[in-house]
Fold these 3 entries.
Entry 1:
Amino acid sequence: MPAKLAITAGAALEINSIVDYIKEELGSPAAASSFVSEFRRVARLVCSFPESKPLCPDPYLRSHGYRSFQVKGYIALYLHSEDIVYVDHVFHQSQDYAAVVVEKDE
C-alpha cells in the first residue's frame, strides 16, 4: 500500500510561490499547470516507493533522514516515516537548498 502524502505548510508556500512565478513572471499558465501535474505524478510514485530515492548527499540533510525527488528543475526534500511521505521543502535546483534548510533549522 502506498504511503500517504503530506505537504508541510512551508512546502505548500514554496510550491505556491513557484506556481505564481511561472504563471506571472514567466507568463506561462500552461507551464505552471504542467509543473503541478508533474509534481503530483512524481510525488505519487515516491509514495509508492518512499525509500527508492537515496538519502541526500549533504551530511546535515542525510543525518535528518532527508531524501529528494526532482520535478522540472525543482528539488523536493522529503522525509518518510511509517506510512507517510512528508514533503518539507521545494527549491529550484540552482539554490543551495542544504544551506537554506540548515539556516531555517537553526
Note: The longest helix spans residues 29-48.
Entry 2:
Amino acid sequence: MIKLLVETKGAFQLQDLGHKGQLAWAHRPSVVENSNFIQDRIGRSQLRILGELKDEATDGEFEKFVTESDKDMALAVSSFLEAYGSEAVEEDEPKKSARGGRKSAARDSDKTE
C-alpha cells in the first residue's frame, strides 16, 4: 500500500475508521496509508499531500523527526522526506546518472546506423 505524508488544511483532524483508524493530526503532518477515505479528503481539499513515502515510513518515526528538529516542522518534513520519501536513494545503491532513458537510447541507436 502506498504511504503518504499529509497535512490537514485547517485546525481539524481526520480519522479513517474504515482503514485501521489512522489519523491525520490537526497540529502536524501525518504518515497515512493511501485509502479511499484519504483520497476523498484530498479531493475535498481537506488534506494536502506533502510527499509519497517508502513502505517502512511510520507516523511514529515522523514524530521522532519532529522532536529532533525542536518542532521546526519545515525541517522535520524535509528531513523525513529525504530519509523516507519514495524518491530517496538507498545508500548502498549506485546512483543513476541524470542522462539515460529512451531519448538517450534513441540517440545512441542513430549513431550506430
Note: The longest helix spans residues 73-84.
Entry 3:
Amino acid sequence: MNKQTPISRIDEKARNYLLIMYALNGAYFFTIFITPIVAVILAYVKQSEWEDSVYRDHVAYIIRTFWVSLLVFVISIPLILLFGLGFVTLTLIGVWFAYRSAFGAWRIWQYQGVNPKLWLELP
C-alpha cells in the first residue's frame, strides 16, 4: 500500500486497538521493556483477524520493530562488557524504537498505512 493512501475502510475499534499497541511501545522507557512485550503479544493475537486489511501492515510494523529491537539489545549487552560500544548501539536502537512507535501511531492517527519492510520511513 502506498504510504500516502488513506485507509479506505475505517474500523475505529481496530484503529484504537493499534493506538493502544503503539502507546504500549512508547512506554518502553518507563517500564523497562515490559509494555512492548504486551504490545507484541496483542499484535500476534490480532494478526490473523486483520489479515485482509491495511491494519495488517501496522501489526507487522509493530512485530518487526519489537524483534529487531530485542535482537540489537541482546547483541549490545556483550558489546558493553567487551568494548563499551554497546552503549552506542543501545542508544541508537532506543531512538529507532521510539521513532518507529511514534511514526506508526501518527500514521494510524492520520488514517494512513505504513510499510513494515522499511527500516526508516520518513513522513
Note: The chain has a mean pLDDT of 89.
